[in-house]
Amino acid sequence: MTQAAVTGVTVAEVMAEVAELDDPRIREVNARHGDDHGVNLSKLRAIATRLKTQQELARELWATDDTAARLLSLLICRPKAFDRDELGTMLRQARTPKVQDWLVNYVVKKSPHAEELRLAWSADPDPVVASAGWTLTSERVAKKPEGLDLPGLLDVIEAEMKGAPDRLQWAMNTCLATIGIEHAEHRGRALDIGERLEVLKDYPTPPNCTSPFAPIWITEIVSRKDT
Please, which domain of life does this record's source organism belong to (predicted)? Predict the structure, then answer.
């Protein structure tokens, strides 16, 4: 495909290119994590780099309901072009963990509606939607904690994380660790909650990776910051 053709590329052409990247071995690995695509993400990013930002094409790719196409869509979209309701609809359509993760981290976090959505999603009865709210809360805990009730967040985590569904539990645990890492005055309580609840204590962690078990995670990252 020539550079001149990039701006006029059709959804069908892009879908065909993405389909050629599908690898059954990658698909098998991804299936274990709830994702239904077999595309090498570095190669998908290379397509996105070539296509550059194309909002209309991004919307058309999203509408295909194909996971790999949606991931590409999130890489070439213009985050601030989506309104609040559209982002809410997209989150409920996301289906797979990777699409949800990229939608929240690459698009919603850059949106002027991020704070409104954080508050609405955190209180949503759907645990997948609520997990997105907690991901946005972790972002605020780390980057813009002013106005957040950190002791109140720890109260909720202490009361609800142990019995939460997997994706919501993971997001709440991330928030717990982020509070412990970023806010020394709450670190002792965050460590205590993690030790008592034992969430993700036995999570299989590859060599040279940090365990998601909050006490280990907090202690390791803080020690790195102190060196």
Answer: Bacteria
Token pair, residue 103, equals 């939608």
Q: Which helix (H) or strand (E) holds 223?
A: helix 214-226
Same domain, 83 and 125: no
Comparing C-alpha atoms, which of 145, 157, 156 is closest to residue 115? 145
- For 75, list phi and psi in degrees, rounded to 5: -85, -25
**Residue in 160, 168, 159 with CA at minimum distance from that of residue 127:** 168
Q: Could you give the number of structural domains in the chain?
A: 2
Q: Which of 111, 146, 168 is the last residue of a domain?
A: 111
Contacts of range 191-199, beta carbons closer than 8 Å, 24 or more positions apart: 191/215, 191/218, 191/219, 193/154, 193/157, 193/158, 193/161, 194/218, 197/158, 197/161, 197/162, 199/161, 199/162, 199/169, 199/173
What region, left, alpha or beta, does residue 208 occupy, with left being phi > 0 and alpha being psi -120 to 50 degrees? left
Tens digit of pLDDT at every position of the chain (227 positions): 333 345 578 999 999 999 999 998 998 888 888 888 889 999 999 999 999 999 999 999 999 999 999 999 999 999 999 999 999 999 999 989 999 999 999 999 999 999 999 999 999 999 999 999 999 999 999 999 999 999 999 999 999 999 999 999 999 999 999 999 999 999 999 999 999 999 999 999 999 899 999 999 999 999 998 77
The Cα 143–Cα 25 span in angstroms is 38
Whether 57 and 154 map to the same domain: the answer is no
